Amino acid sequence: MNNIIVVSICEKSIGEKNIIGYEFRFSGTFDGQRINKINVYSDVGFRLGEQYILNLSICNVELSCLNAKLLYSKELKKYL
Fold it and tell me: What is the reported pTM?
């Protein structure tokens, strides 16, 4: 399994059966495939609109969407 570290903003909550996940903004490539978003599946809750550092375990890539399980996350604080 591949692990990656990403800095991204949580855009929306998604739910599939008993699994809760979140969609994160992303624009780039992974393993030669174009990626437009990352779906992160986890027991941990995220706040929408906030930016996070995510350590992820890659599950698969489908239709320009990277699906991953959360290993670790840290919310980035905003300083004014």
Answer: 0.86
- Domain 3-75: give its CATH code: 2.40.50
The span from the first CA to the last CA of the chain, in angstroms, equals 39
SS (H, E, C) the chain: CCEEEEEEEEEEEEEECCEEEEEEEEEEEECCEEEEEEEEECCCCCCCCCEEEEEEEEEEEECCEEEEEEEEEEECCCCC
pLDDT digits (tens, 9 = 90+) for 31-75: 889 999 999 999 888 999 999 999 999 999 999 999 999 999 999
β-strand 33-41 against 65-75: which pairing, if any?
parallel
